[in-house]
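TEACHING EXERCISE
Course module: macromolecular assemblies
Task: Read the component lines below, then compare them to the predicted structure of the full complex.
Student: A.B.
Group: 4
Components provided:
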Amino acid sequence: MNEQSTKSAATQPAVSHATFAVERAYPVPPERVFFAFSNLDSKRRWFAEGEGWVVLEFTSDFSVGGSEFSRFRFGDGPEITNDTQYQNIVTNERIVITYRMAVAGAPISVSLATIEFSPSGKGTVLTYTEQGVYFDDASAGANREIGCRELMEALARELAVAA
Amino acid sequence: MNEQSTKSAATQPAVSHATFAVERAYPVPPERVFFAFSNLDSKRRWFAEGEGWVVLEFTSDFSVGGSEFSRFRFGDGPEITNDTQYQNIVTNERIVITYRMAVAGAPISVSLATIEFSPSGKGTVLTYTEQGVYFDDASAGANREIGCRELMEALARELAVAA
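Instructor-supplied answer key:
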């Protein structure tokens, strides 16, 4: 599933909408994968940290209506902020979030992400579906999907170490 | 544009994703249409009130990061809640919101809506694009689009009276 539409008018910046879905299997049960999303330290490790990334701020309230905020940059790059809100939580089964991102203070996108955890043998199939709107960059949806796949690999490393 | 995918697994409720877009022309300039979204009293009139609807609560903070909350029912029906957050605002041009809805306390959906105001002659073309995830009801996306078109007509009446 990959759908993208671009709209542009002379009077306002282009806005594009895109949806993508990423599926990834992990060799640990749903409870363990869910924990990596709900636990602050674990989430910070695989989601915010990583070689070359400087985490300036990371706070999270994992509850419906709760906010998660991260502020970071890559190397000497511009500051990036992520304002997330938890919208729906079904323990060990589903998390729905919305988030907006800005680079150097300029809004670049708003997204709605559905994360589903399904048992598969002794492991888990995670399905990540993101519906988003992007400002001023019609190719941003495709780039976001690449970034998302990288995060799913970072999560695999977190689960391998801490399992 | 109308895309819908349904996923269902034995271990968790069905989740469906849908996107729809509604376009509506109004005979007043973008500033006037934008005002009907940004002004609390005007928004409440066309968005929350209406024949048969009982508005139990309506509060709004029209600013990025600000929340809007409404609690209402239709006749003697169950209580419905709408938790909205303003995600992006470009005065007279664009509003992006996310919102979750619940009926009798049970979550039914989370949505990301992009509202664009484009000048057209002396009037405005409003484009409303909603990307959503629905819980336990695969036909909910189609119903939401019907409800949205009704709201665009209620907005037309508000603009006709107050213009």
